[in-house]
Structures are given as C-alpha cells and as structure tokens.
C-alpha cells in the first residue's frame, strides 16, 4: 500500500475518506476503524475494495476456519480483521513501516482479547525481506485495492509467489481503472490460474481468485 498524503482539496464524493473513523458490521461484530487521510493518505482509509472483499468472505465461498492467512497492503486492516473474526486460525496483517502503529491500534480495538494472540501485525514491503515469511506458508493470501502502482507489480507478484503454495488461495479485490491494471492480471496469469469469482456492480469491484501454477519440471 502506498503511503501518499493528500491535501484537503478533494471532491465531495471522497469526503467519507476524510472522516476520522469508519464503522461496519461483519462476522457478528461491530468493527470501528480509525482513519487518518491527512497523515498517511491512501493507506489510512477504508476503500470500497476492502468492504467488498469482506462481504465476499462473509458469504463463505472461501473456507477460513482453521486457516493461516496473510493480508498484503492492509491499510486500516479491515480485511485481515474480518478474516480473523470469521475464524482464521492465524492472521498476519502487513503493510509498510509507517502504517504499523496505526494498523496495530485498529487490530487491538477490534479483535476480542481471547483472539489477539492469533493476529500479528508485521512490516512487509513487497519484494523485500521475504525470508522473514515462510515460503508457501499461507493458506490464504488477501489483497484489497493493492493493484494500482505499476512500478510495484513485479515485487507484488514476487511476494505473492513466495507466500503461496500450489494449494493456497490468493484473493484480490480490485477496481480496474486503467490499462496497467489489466496488464497486472496478464502478469498474474503467467504464474497463477486466475478466475473472476465475484463482481460488485454498484461499487465496480472485481474479486479474482488465483491459485499458483505447478512448478515447471524441465526434462
């Protein structure tokens, strides 16, 4: 998730992003998230892709109970928090260093005390320090609105490959804005089997499910 502050000259349609908090009801819990657009920009507000991802997870189309999950570019942490509330055994919620204190506060505020030990907030800059994370060690890899900076595409793909095994499920919630976004999907298709599994017409959000292709075994 890019940490890009914005100035106060925003369109009225974006005004909700400047609210100091956002509230939701998922997994039979009220979730209240602090937002801070002025300090951390896009990393510190809830975007529609995260909301649609949580709605999709609530549908039960992906089994979370007992699974080990990781969220990339978590921002406010909504998706990872909801994954934990829906029964994931262990959830690692990641973003870049400047967002971690903010992210950890949202986790502490919304995860019940008896579940806090199952949720970890961790620094992850895509493509860097991946040895700190187990190769293929996650059942589910989650990302909401993380496909938008073209320069990050190779490192994002590298990170997804490292974290997932051939039995892992990668879920990406995306708004396809530009040609570069479809270019990322083309890159993803070279390493993963990719299917669109959900489309929210009202919010124009696509959810893609990706499964890592078997490693090539050259003769």
From TrEMBL:
Primary location recorded for the protein, binned into one broad class: cytoplasm
Reactions performed catalytically: L-lysyl-[protein] + 3 S-adenosyl-L-methionine = N(6),N(6),N(6)-trimethyl-L-lysyl-[protein] + 3 S-adenosyl-L-homocysteine + 3 H(+)
This protein's UniProt keywords: Cytoplasm, Methyltransferase, S-adenosyl-L-methionine, Transferase
SUPFAM superfamilies named in the record: S-adenosyl-L-methionine-dependent methyltransferases
GO terms of molecular function: methyltransferase activity
UniProt key word Secreted: no
GO-annotated cellular components: cytosol; protein-containing complex
Compartments reported by the entry: Cytoplasm
Listed Pfam families: Methyltransf_16
GO BP terms in the entry: methylation
Listed Gene3D superfamilies: Vaccinia Virus protein VP39
Coiled coil (UniProt feature): none
Top-rank lineage group of the source organism: Eukaryota
InterPro entries: Methyltransf_16 (IPR019410), SAM-dependent_MTases_sf (IPR029063)
Family: Belongs to the methyltransferase superfamily. METTL21 family.
Protein name: Protein N-lysine methyltransferase METTL21A
Organism, scientific name: Oncorhynchus mykiss (Rainbow trout)
